[in-house]
Write a structure and sequence with these properties.
The protein has 10 helices and 12 strands. Strands 2-1-3-5-6-4 form a 6-stranded mixed beta sheet, with helices on both faces. A hairpin with a 2-residue loop joins strand 5 and strand 6. Helix 1 crosses helix 9 and helix 9 crosses helix 10. The longest helix has 16 residues. It is globular. The structure holds NADP nicotinamide-adenine-dinucleotide phosphate. The site of NADP nicotinamide-adenine-dinucleotide phosphate has 27 residues, from helix 4, helix 5 and helix 9. The site of NADP nicotinamide-adenine-dinucleotide phosphate (NAP) has 27 residues, from helix 4, helix 5 and helix 9.
């Protein structure tokens, strides 16, 4: 990669950010398409977010991804946002067009592409067990509701958070049944597992350093499908459990890939070289 006077700059704002796979993925894509662009990780402390946003404009940075802890706060600095940002309340991609900043949330399409490409799943008409009520769960819920899921059991360690999320989405999607359950209620959890056609882990459980949940996967119907958003480690305890039971399952690396591919397309207008991007982060 040759960085020259003409090179266009893209990047990611996060804190911490040194674990991010996005620079590897985007720089591989720029190289493949021979674009004169570079992607850099910027560690932005929350107290510096304001000045970092101004720097997007003053330095002429053409686009940034946004990750923890800035995904919600960045909203107040943007000129426009895309429709999925309204439901998720979070932005993971910003495009700078001559100083006008537009926010997108490509996690939603990233998730939908991941389940379609990896597992052949589209949410329409499905009964879904969704674990988690944080930022990732909001993006997943948005994708599920926008695409006609039929019933969603929203299960979370902290019931209040799940209830709040469920009632917010129920107001917008009156035809979809969304029930919030506490993880500790074994009866409700097991009852939900027995009928779930798709189980999604959008919680941090099973992530490196976070304990895995002991869900009774054997209760799931035999043709149930599992998607685990966690991608560190690549094979989570949930995926191992699915494999042992012969259930179709995939891990979160593909969602990371497809959200990145969508950001790339928003910024460059070029079709993302998905295979090259995938290979760079495997
Ligand atoms: P977040 O906003 O901090 O939410 C964390 C969620 O996990 C909350 O629902 C929390 O429950 C739950 N949780 C945390 N520790 C738990 C435990 N020990 N047992 C049970 N539940 C637990 O985080 P997030 O941004 O939603 O991210 C969640 C996960 O998704 C992370 O592992 C992240 O890496 C992954 N993710 C993957 C992608 C991808 O592209 N594949 C994209 C985004 C996120 P409480 O409400 O009770 O605290």
């Amino acid at each position: 990669m040759h960085v020259r006077a003409t090179t266009k700059v893209f990047g990611i704002f996060g804190h911490p950010v040194n674990h991010s796979l996005s620079p590897t993925m985007h720089n591989a894509a720029f190289k493949k398409l021979k674009l004169d662009c570079v992607y850099i990780a910027f560690d932005i402390h929350p107290k510096n977010l304001d000045s970092a946003i101004q720097a997007i404009k003053s330095l002429g940075i053409l686009g940034v991804n946004v990750t923890i802890p800035h995904k919600e706060r960045i909203l107040s600095f943007l000129d426009e946002t895309s429709p999925e940002v309204t439901m998720t309340g979070a932005v993971n991609t910003v495009k700078n067009e001559n100083g006008k900043l537009t926010g997108y949330n490509t996690d939603v399409e990233g998730f939908l592409m991941a389940i379609k490409e990896d597992l052949g799943v589209i949410p329409r008409g499905l009964r879904i067990f969704l674990l988690g009520a944080g930022g990732a769960a909001r993006a997943v819920l948005t994708g599920l509701c926008m695409n006609g899921a039929s019933e969603i059991y929203l299960v979370n360690r902290t019931l209040d958070k799940a209830k709040k999320l469920a009632s917010e989405f129920k107001r917008c999607y009156k035809d979809i049944s969304i029930e919030a359950y506490p993880l500790e209620d074994r009866v409700l959890v097991e009852q939900s597992l027995r009928t779930a056609e798709l189980l999604i882990n959008a919680s941090s459980s099973g992530m490196e350093g976070v304990a895995s949940l002991e869900l009774r996967l054997e209760l799931l119907p035999k043709d149930s499908i599992i998607y685990d958003l966690v991608y560190k480690p690549r094979e989570t305890a949930l995926l191992k459990g699915a494999k042992e039971l012969g259930l179709k399952a995939a891990g979160g690396l593909s969602m990371l890939l497809y959200q990145g591919a969508k950001s790339f397309e928003i910024w460059t207008g070029e079709k993302a070289p998905v295979d090259v991007m995938r290979k760079s982060i495997q």
